[in-house]
Amino acid sequence: MILHGLFGSSDNWLTQAKILSAKYKVYTVDQRNHGLSPHDESFDYGSMVNDLVEFIDQHQLKNLIVLGHSMGGKAAMNLAVAHPDKLEKLIVVDIAPRKYDLEHYVIVDGLKAIPIDTLIARNDADHILSTYVPEPDVRQFLLKNLQRKAEGGFSWKINLPVIAQKLSNIGLDLQFPGTFAKPTLFVRGARSRYIRDEDRTHIKEVFPKSSLITMDTGHWVQAEKPVEFVDVVMRWLEV
Predict the structure, then answer these.
(1) DSSP code, position 222
(2) Could you tell me which of 93, 114, 201, 214 has the fewest CB atoms within 10 Å of its CB?
């Protein structure tokens, strides 16, 4: 089961899921307030964990491996600590079990600056967003959340008002006590600051059977090197 990060969706993982599906049955999940999942006023890790438990039970998933990136990795860690019986292995991509001071408020400001009710063209949204987010690839990723309405115009797939209001919840530390004493893999980007060397001690405390692999990427490990990332994951799973 693959969990995307903040402002993402299950569509971000189609390439990796296709490769993994040669050997595993893969579920790519849109988390609440993202993608095709329902919008809700609650947006925190406790709610996400409840969603995931409901999904796991509904689909009667056994021998489950959960893989999550960034916010999805934090949701996966919370799930593993709160319900260790629900999964057999955990893979966390470029996020640590600690509190973060998020840098996403400028992104929220940029998305809110887009006049969604009167927007005519996607290029107009990109032009407005460029004032806040200079990186073209990041803007392309963010604007995947724009969808055309049947009656014309655009709307957001994400629940932007709730995400903006409750963004600080996403930077919080793990919300459940305990440990996950099953095989766990942390993958970090060498050019990312999300998993620091000093985080490794605490990672081992919470995930005593964990290992860490560093790839030559930034924060978007799986997007920058999708084939190499899946190879790292597959090699670890087969040990």
Answers:
(1) H
(2) 201
Give the CA distances from residue 127 to residues 123, 137, 140, in Å, rounded to whole numbers and listed in that order: 6, 13, 11
The rounded distance, in Å, linking the Cα atoms of 48 and 19 is 26
pTM of the model: 0.95
Total Cβ atoms within 10 A of residue 238: 7
Q: How many CA atoms lie within 13 A of 163 on its CB side?
A: 26
Strand-pair category, 28-29 with 146-148:
unpaired
More confident residue, 102 or 138: 138
Sign of CA dihedral 223, 219, 178, 38: negative
Residue ranges and CATH numbers for the domains of the chain are 2-99+172-237 (3.40.50.1820), 105-165 (no CATH)
Residue 226 to residue 176: CA distance in whole angstroms:
31
Q: Which residues, including other chains, have CB under 8 Å from residue 86's CB and lie 6 or more apart?
A: 52, 53, 56, 61, 64, 79
| pLDDT above 90 for 228 | yes
